[in-house]
C-alpha cells in the first residue's frame, strides 16, 4: 500500500502531469464504481498527508517567517526614507534649474532687445502680408485694420479620438486670431499652404497635453464642442507656443478693456463732481460715471473666467464650471450694472447655455443607461445649481423611464409564467424604489417637483402592466396562475409604502379590465364543463376502487372546507354522491379561492355574479332531475346530492366569500333559500330563480 501511495505521489508531482489524460486513462481501466471509489480514497488520503506536512513545515519555520517579515518591514522603511530624500533633492534641483533658466531668459531678452529694436506694427503687418501671400484662400484676412503677425510655425495635427497623425499644418498667430493652414501637395508659384480654419482668440482655450511617449510635445485647442491636437517640433517650441498664445490672449483682453474705458469716458475736461445736480430732489440719483468706476472687473480670475469655463466644459468638469459661475454671481451680487458688466454677462451666458446643453445631453436617454439612478446625480445636481430644477426633473424622469422600458424589453420570456413575473416585478419595483430614493435625495429642496414624480410613477406603472398583462392574460394562462402573478405584483407594490408611495390603487385600476375578462372566461369554462357532465349524468354512486383514492378525495374536500364530507362516504371505496356533484364542488371552490386572491372592491359584483351563475347551473340540474326522475331509489339519491349542495356546499361558499371580502353576500343567501325548496319539496321548480 505504501509503495502504491509513493508511486501515486510521484505521478501527481511530475512536471508533465495532465489531469484530463489521467482521469480518462483511469476511467478506461476501472471495472466499476468500486475501483473509482478506492482510487478516490487514495487521492484523499494523499491530500490529507500533504496538508498535514504543510502544517508541520509552517510550525517548524514559524520563527523564520516572523524574522523575515521584520526584515521586510525594516527594508520598506529604509526605502521610504530613501525615496523621500530623492524627492527632496529632485525638487531642489528643479528649483535651481528654473531660477537659472529664468535669469538666462531675462538676460537674453535684454540682449535681443538691445540688438534688435522692437518691430513696429507696420513692419509686423508687412511681414504678415508677405506670409499670407503663400496661403491659398486668405485674401480677406488683412481687411481687418490693426491686425498683425505675432508668431508662426509648422505643426503636426493628430486625431483627438485615436491619436492618429492627420496632416502637417502651418499656424499663424495674429494679435486677434489664429489661422490654421494645411500644406499643399502640388505647389504652384509662391503658394505653399491652403486655408483651413480661422479662430478668434476668445473662442478657444489652450490646454497642455502631458507627454506619453511616443506622443509628446503636444497641446490642445478647445472650441466647444470640438477640439484639435497639435504637436510641436520639440519641447522648446511647444513651450513658446503655449506662452505666446497665453500672452496674446491676455493682451487682447487688456487692450479691449482699455479701449472700452476710453470710449466710455467723457470728452469734456469738466470733473464729474461739477456735473452733479444741485436739485435737492435728485440726491438719490447715481452718477453713471461713478457706477462705471465702482465695478472692478480687472481681477485676473474674472478676465480669465470665459476661458476657464470653456476648459471646464471641455474637460467635463461640471462642478468646477458651476463653482466659477457661483463665485461670479456672488461677486456681482451687490455691484451696480454697467456696460462692462453686461458684456461680461453676455459672454458668461453663452457658456452657461453650452454647459446646459452638455448637461442635458448627459441626461438624455441616448446616453448609456447603465449605473442606475445614481449615474444621473452629477448632471442633475449641477442643473439644479444653475436654477433649472424643472428641466432637471423632466430629464431625470425621462432618463429613468427609458431605463425601465429598456430593462423590461431585455427581460427574456422563458420558462414558467410565474418565474417571468417574479423577474419582471423584481426589475420594475426595484428600479422604481431606487429612482424614488434618488429623486428624494436630488430634489429634497424642490417640493414642487414631487407631483411630477407621482405622475411619472403612474405612467411607469402602465408600462409595467402592459408587459404583465401581455404575459399573464393575453397568453390565456389558468386562473390559478393569474392569481399567483397578481399576488406577487401586489406584494411588490406594498414595498413602496416604505418611502410613502402607494401605487396599489393604480395597479388595481389598470388590471381590473383584464381580471374581469379572466374571471368571466373561467366562469364560462366551468359552466360549459358542468353542463357537459350534466348531459351524461346517470345518478350513480362514486366507486373510487382503492382506499388511497378515497383518502385523497377526502383530503381534497377537506382542503375545500367540506369538513362534513365523511358522512357521505360509504363502505369500502364508495361515496354516496354523484361524480358530477363532487367534480362541480371541487371546480367551484377552486374558482372561489382564486377569485378571492384577485379580489378588490371593483371586482365585487363580477365575482359574486359569476359564483351565482355557476351555482345556479348545478341547482337547476338537480331540480330538473328530481322532476323528471320516476324511480324512487334514484330520486332518493338525487335528494341526497341536493342536501349536500344545500347543507354543505352553499354554506361553505357563503362563509368563505364573507371571510375573503369582509361582508356577507345577500345574493348567495337568497340563492340558498331558493334551493331549499328542492330539498323540502322535490316537486317545486327553480324557474323563479
From TrEMBL:
Keywords assigned: Cell projection, Cytoplasm, Exocytosis, Protein transport, Transport
Organism domain of life: Eukaryota
All copies of domain PH, residue ranges: 148-250
Stored SMART domains: PH
InterPro entries named among the record's database cross-references: Cullin_repeat-like_dom_sf, Exo84, Exo84_C, Exo84_C_1, Exo84_C_2, PH-like_dom_sf, PH_domain
Entry GO CC: exocyst; growth cone; perinuclear region of cytoplasm
Biological process terms in GO annotation: exocytosis; Golgi to plasma membrane transport; protein transport
Subcellular location: Cell projection, Growth cone; Cytoplasm, Perinuclear region
Region described as Disordered: 19-38
Major localization class: other
Record Pfam families: Exo84_C (PF16528), VPS51_Exo84_N (PF08700)
UniProt family annotation: Belongs to the EXO84 family.
PANTHER family for the chain: EXOCYST COMPLEX COMPONENT 8
Described function: Component of the exocyst complex involved in the docking of exocytic vesicles with fusion sites on the plasma membrane.
Name of the protein this chain belongs to: Exocyst complex component 8
Species of provenance: Oncorhynchus mykiss
Lineage: Eukaryota, Metazoa, Chordata, Craniata, Vertebrata
Gene name for this UniProt entry: LOC110529606
Amino acid at each position: 500500500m505504501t509503495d502504491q501511495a509513493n508511486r501515486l505521489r510521484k505521478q501527481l508531482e511530475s512536471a508533465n502531469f495532465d489531469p484530463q489524460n489521467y482521469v480518462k486513462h483511469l476511467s478506461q481501466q476501472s471495472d466499476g464504481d468500486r475501483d473509482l471509489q478506492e482510487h478516490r480514497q487514495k487521492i484523499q488520503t494523499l491530500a490529507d498527508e500533504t496538508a498535514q506536512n504543510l502544517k508541520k513545515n509552517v510550525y517548524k519555520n514559524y520563527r523564520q517567517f516572523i524574522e523575515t517579515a521584520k526584515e521586510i518591514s525594516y527594508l520598506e522603511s529604509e526605502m521610504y526614507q530613501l525615496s523621500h530624500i530623492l524627492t527632496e533633492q529632485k525638487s531642489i534641483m528643479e528649483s535651481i534649474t528654473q531660477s537659472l533658466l529664468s535669469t538666462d531668459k531675462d538676460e537674453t531678452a535684454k540682449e535681443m532687445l538691445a540688438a534688435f529694436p522692437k518691430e513696429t506694427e507696420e513692419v509686423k503687418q508687412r511681414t504678415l502680408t508677405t506670409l499670407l501671400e503663400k496661403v491659398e484662400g486668405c485674401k480677406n484676412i488683412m481687411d481687418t485694420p490693426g491686425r498683425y503677425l505675432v508668431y508662426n510655425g509648422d505643426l503636426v495635427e493628430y486625431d483627438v479620438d485615436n491619436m492618429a497623425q492627420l496632416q502637417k499644418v502651418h499656424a499663424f498667430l495674429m494679435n486677434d486670431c489664429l489661422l490654421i493652414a494645411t500644406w499643399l501637395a502640388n505647389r504652384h508659384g509662391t503658394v505653399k499652404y491652403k486655408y483651413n480654419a480661422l479662430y478668434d482668440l476668445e473662442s478657444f482655450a489652450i490646454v497642455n497635453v502631458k507627454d506619453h511617449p511616443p506622443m509628446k510635445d503636444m497641446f490642445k485647442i478647445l472650441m466647444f464642442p470640438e477640439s484639435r491636437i497639435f504637436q510641436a517640433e520639440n519641447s522648446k517650441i511647444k513651450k513658446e507656443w503655449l506662452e505666446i498664445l497665453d500672452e496674446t490672449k491676455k493682451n487682447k483682453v487688456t487692450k479691449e478693456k482699455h479701449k472700452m474705458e476710453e470710449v466710455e469716458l467723457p470728452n469734456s475736461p469738466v470733473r464729474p463732481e461739477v456735473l452733479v445736480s444741485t436739485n435737492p430732489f435728485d440726491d438719490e440719483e447715481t452718477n453713471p460715471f461713478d457706477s462705471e468706476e465702482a465695478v472692478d472687473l480687472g481681477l485676473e480670475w474674472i478676465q480669465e473666467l470665459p476661458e476657464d469655463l470653456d476648459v471646464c466644459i471641455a474637460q467635463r468638469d461640471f462642478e468646477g464650471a458651476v463653482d466659477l459661475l457661483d463665485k461670479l454671481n456672488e461677486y456681482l451680487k451687490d455691484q451696480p450694472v454697467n456696460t462692462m458688466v453686461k458684456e461680461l454677462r453676455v459672454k458668461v451666458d453663452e457658456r452657461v447655455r453650452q454647459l446646459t446643453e452638455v448637461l442635458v445631453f448627459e441626461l438624455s436617454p441616448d446616453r448609456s443607461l447603465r449605473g442606475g439612478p445614481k449615474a444621473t446625480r452629477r448632471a442633475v445636481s449641477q442643473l439644479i445649481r444653475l436654477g433649472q430644477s424643472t428641466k432637471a426633473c423632466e430629464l431625470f424622469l425621462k432618463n429613468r423611464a427609458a431605463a425601465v422600458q429598456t430593462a423590461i424589453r431585455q427581460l427574456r420570456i422563458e420558462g414558467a409564467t410565474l418565474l417571468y413575473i417574479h423577474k419582471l416585478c423584481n426589475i420594475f419595483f426595484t428600479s422604481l424604489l431606487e429612482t424614488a430614493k434618488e429623486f428624494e435625495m436630488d430634489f429634497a429642496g424642490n417640493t414642487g417637483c414631487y407631483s411630477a414624480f407621482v405622475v411619472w410613477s403612474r405612467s411607469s406603472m402602465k408600462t409595467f402592466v402592459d408587459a404583465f398583462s401581455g404575459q399573464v392574460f393575453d397568453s390565456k394562462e389558468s386562473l390559478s396562475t393569474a392569481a399567483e402573478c397578481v399576488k406577487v405584483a401586489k406584494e411588490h407594490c406594498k414595498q413602496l409604502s416604505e418611502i410613502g408611495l402607494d401605487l396599489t390603487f393604480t395597479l388595481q385600476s389598470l388590471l381590473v379590465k383584464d381580471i374581469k375578462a379572466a374571471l368571466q372566461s373561467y366562469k364560462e369554462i366551468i359552466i360549459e364543463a358542468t353542463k357537459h357532465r350534466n348531459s351524461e349524468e346517470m345518478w350513480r354512486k362514486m366507486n373510487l376502487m382503492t382506499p388511497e383514492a378515497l383518502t385523497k378525495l377526502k383530503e381534497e374536500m377537506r382542503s375545500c372546507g367540506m369538513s362534513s364530507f365523511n358522512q357521505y362516504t360509504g363502505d369500502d371505496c364508495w361515496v354516496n354522491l354523484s361524480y358530477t356533484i363532487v367534480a362541480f364542488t371541487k371546480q367551484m371552490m377552486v374558482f372561489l379561492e382564486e377569485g378571492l386572491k384577485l379580489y378588490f372592491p371593483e371586482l365585487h359584483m363580477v365575482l359574486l355574479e359569476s359564483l351565482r351563475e355557476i351555482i345556479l347551473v348545478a341547482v337547476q340540474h338537480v331540480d330538473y332531475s328530481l322532476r323528471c326522475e320516476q324511480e324512487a331509489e334514484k330520486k332518493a339519491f338525487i335528494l341526497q346530492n341536493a342536501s349536500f349542495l344545500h347543507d354543505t356546499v352553499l354554506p361553505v361558499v357563503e362563509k368563505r366569500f364573507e371571510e375573503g371580502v369582509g361582508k356577507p353576500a345577500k345574493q348567495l343567501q337568497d340563492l340558498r333559500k331558493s334551493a331549499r325548496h328542492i330539498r323540502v319539496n322535490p316537486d317545486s321548480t327553480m324557474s323563479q330563480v
